[in-house]
Write a structure and sequence with these properties.
Blueprint (H helix, E strand, L loop, with lengths): L1 H11 L10 E2 L8 E2 L16 E3 H8 L9 H8 L6 H4 L5 E3 L11 E6 L7 H7 L4 E3 L6 E3 L2 E6 L5 E6 L13 H12 L13 E2 L2 E2 L1 E6 L2 E5 L7 H7 L10 H4 L10 H7 L5 H8 L4 H4 L14 E3 L7 E6 L5 E3 L10 E6 L5 H6 L5 E2 L8 H6 L1 H4 L1 E4 L10 E2 L6 H8 L1 H9 L3 H8 L5 E2 L12 H4 L7 H10 L19 E6 L1 H4 L3 H11 L4 E6 L2 H9 L5 E2 L7 H6 L17 H8 L10 H13 L7 H17 L6 E2 L5 E4 L2 E2 L23 E2 L2
Parallel strand pairs: 4-16, 5-17, 22-23
Antiparallel strand pairs: 1-2, 3-4, 6-7, 8-9, 9-13, 10-11, 12-13, 14-15, 15-17, 18-26, 19-26, 20-24, 21-25, 27-28
Length: 674
């Protein structure tokens, strides 16, 4: 029944008013009583799903909401080391409706990843905050750090309002100055960014900002940017337009003339390098070192011990800006504990009941044994959609001129696609429940079944024919030769974060051997893989996740060169050419340039419009004709293990990196039942 109510509420939002009240017995939080939840809103009306501002909530209640203290902070408050909760949360705090019931304080949420900055996005999704957020219907943009916003008529200006009294985790005010600092002193600072990142450009010009008052500012764009809010919300907090000015200015040359000397005394060459350990668009990088202990945050939890190769820990933020409908400051869970283990050990730890929630980089091959041991481990396995099988991206700008010639010939890429036995791959590694298809955006109106089926048939005869046409003759050992007479040898360095299992590259290598292509496979770390990708050293790249429309709307770079916001997957020299306006790097081929042009126009058009669909179809056509990304399987569920001790955890509707994994499902209101 609860699940039915939840589904109805998601479908109809504030039009659906469920009048029944649930009376809850609370142990360590507010007094017993009936409080609004997602399952039982109790007549509370919301403009946005599952949340509303404190003043609006109090108006509907007809009284002031009494705020309650997390016992974790009681001693510090009594000792005068921490203000009372009323002084810590904003005057217009964000009131969150828990999914099922008011939670209990306490506990340690235990997660697992491969290593620092490797498979850690999920752990970050438990604590992260963004300016705006994608709700769990996977499409609605809702306020978060930002209280409200308003566009002008042509989507070239947007005015934001912040929450009065919002504070950083050190108790200092969070204001418009933190946004101005981010835009003018970081994003537009040429010492930190040679060119303004593409997500902050439109029509070839950078965003401008105007501060109106401490809680209000305006962003101005050269051309319409209707997908801007999707950019801010779809990938979690990665691109939140704020930075902790009062802390970071101490390391910025504009505000500290001795910043270079200070950096050198700390062992860095320049102030930019030193500044970079305290600020990174990828916020997880800041908490990857002990430097992160110093940096104030707005997130639900603060790193409280120096990270190492075994673990990283966080404690609840006493200044977090959200409360539940009973007046309890969130988060409920006091601690986050992230361990770093080899992927082969994850199932064992889950079955032993040592992990509370895990989905990122989980393989379907582990699902049967995990499902069989649910009762023993005290967890439940789910299979939410959201992933694509691993992809293969050949480096068309390889430093080896002969490999570049081979990889750049579309016939080679077509042959490699046709030589993959996707049906067998599906059965062996994906339980037969995935779907063979090319690597294409999901949940978009401009991708057809014909597109998905392009060059996915297992056809060794055709693959051999294409390689023969290229003049790649076979040697005595059956392997094909380069023009210099050497054996074509591909070094496939991979990380389990993207290969999903070590068997994947091994199977593909066996398939390609049948058409005379020799492949050597080697597992390396994600960090090393990214370094090599950025330096244009890899033969094959794989760091690509299927983009959903919500991420495509604002950032088509996921499906246009360089196919990543982190490090180039295709064409590192092309990217340098674009960034330098042709002064350095390498001029891209016509198809790549056209995709770049499409991306620039795409960001200015309204989603769903005629032009939007035209550009979408052209994007798909060019990618398929050039087979830039060789897909294997689609519709791949991502196994998600959730401890039975956790409460207020809904069934994930989509589990995908571009939605921030668990982020839409609000881990700050999860709690431990016992």
């Amino acid at each position: 029944m609860k699940r039915m109510y939840r589904c109805l509420f998601r479908l109809f939002g504030n039009q659906l008013l469920l009048t029944s009240i649930v009376f809850l017995v609370l142990t360590s939080v507010a007094l017993a009583g009936g409080y609004a939840t997602v399952d039982n809103p109790g007549g509370i009306k919301t403009q946005f799903p599952q949340q509303l501002d404190l003043k609006d909530y109090e108006k509907q209640l007809g009284k002031k909401l009494k705020l309650s203290e997390n016992p974790l902070f009681t001693k510090r408050v009594k000792a005068g080391k921490l203000p009372a909760v009323e002084q810590r949360v904003p005057q217009d705090a964000l009131v969150v409706m828990p999914y099922d019931e008011i939670g209990r304080y306490g506990g340690k949420l235990r997660g697992v990843a491969l290593a620092l900055e490797s498979s850690t996005s999920e752990g970050m999704s438990w604590r992260q905050v963004s300016f705006v957020r994608i709700s769990d219907d996977m499409r609605t943009i809702v306020p978060n750090v930002a209280k409200a916003w308003k566009w002008n008529k042509d989507y070239t200006e947007i005015t934001f309002h912040l929450r009065k009294g919002h504070k950083w985790s050190d108790g200092k005010p969070f204001t418009s100055d933190d946004v101005v600092f981010y835009i003018n002193d970081i994003i537009k600072n040429k010492d930190l960014h040679k060119t303004v990142p593409s997500r902050w450009q439109i029509g070839g010009e950078a965003v401008d900002i105007k501060k109106i008052d401490a809680q209000t500012f305006k962003l101005m764009f050269a051309k319409p940017y209707p997908g801007f809010l999707h950019m801010l919300g779809a990938s979690g907090s990665y691109y939140s337009p704020y930075a902790v000015r009062h802390f970071l200015k101490n390391y910025h040359i504009k505000y500290n003339p001795k910043a270079n000397e200070q950096a050198q005394a700390a062992g860095f060459k320049t102030w930019q390098e030193y500044f970079g350990v305290f600020f990174n668009k990828w916020k997880d990088a800041v908490t990857a070192t002990a430097y992160g202990l110093k940096v104030p945050t707005l997130e639900s939890h603060i790193m409280d011990t120096e990270p190492n190769s075994q673990r990283r820990t966080f404690v609840a933020n006493p200044y977090y800006f959200k409360v539940d409908t009973a007046g309890n400051q969130l988060p409920y869970i006091n601690y986050h504990h992230e361990r770093f283990l080899d992927k082969e050990l994850w199932p064992i730890e889950i079955m032993n009941g040592n992990i509370d929630q895990k989905s990122q980089n989980m393989g379907l091959n582990d699902f049967p044994v995990l499902k069989e041991n649910e009762k023993k481990g005290g967890y439940t396995m789910h299979l939410p959609p959201g992933m694509a099988g691993p992809v293969v991206i050949f480096n068309q700008t390889h430093r080896d001129k002969e490999l570049r010639r081979i990889f750049s010939d579309v016939r080679f890429r077509q042959a490699m696609s046709l030589a993959i036995n996707r049906d067998e791959l599906n059965e062996v590694l994906f339980l037969g429940i995935a779907k063979p298809q090319q690597a294409l955006p999901e949940n978009v109106p401009f991708v057809t079944d014909a597109d998905r089926n392009y060059m996915i048939q297992f056809d060794l005869k055709k693959a051999n024919q294409l390689l023969d046409e290229m003049g790649l003759k076979k040697g005595k050992d059956g392997f094909r030769l380069r023009s210099d007479g050497k054996t074509i040898t591909i070094l496939w360095e991979y990380t389990l974060q993207y290969a999903m299992s070590p068997e994947f590259p091994t199977l593909i290598a066996d398939y390609w051997k049948k058409v005379g292509i020799k492949v050597l496979t080697k597992e390396i770390t994600s960090a090393l893989l990214r370094e090599k990708s950025a330096a244009n050293f890899n033969d094959i790249n794989m760091e690509w996740f299927v983009p959903y429309e919500v991420s495509m709307i604002s950032n088509p770079v996921y499906f246009t060169p360089p196919y990543s916001t982190l490090v180039p997957q295709v064409g590192a020299p092309w990217l340098e050419y674009w960034k330098s306006n042709g002064k350095s790097g390498e001029k891209p081929p016509a198809w790549a340039q056209r995709l770049r042009d499409i991306a620039a126009e795409w960001k200015t058009v309204a989603p769903g419009s005629k032009r939007y669909l035209e550009l979408g179809r052209e994007m798909v056509k060019l990618n398929l004709e050039n087979l830039v990304i060789i897909g294997t399987l689609g519709k791949v569920p991502l196994p998600n293990a959730v401890s039975n001790r956790l409460g207020n955890v809904p069934a994930f509707t989509i589990d995908n990196t571009y939605y921030g994994y668990a982020y839409p499902f609000r881990a700050d209101q999860w709690y431990f039942k016992k």
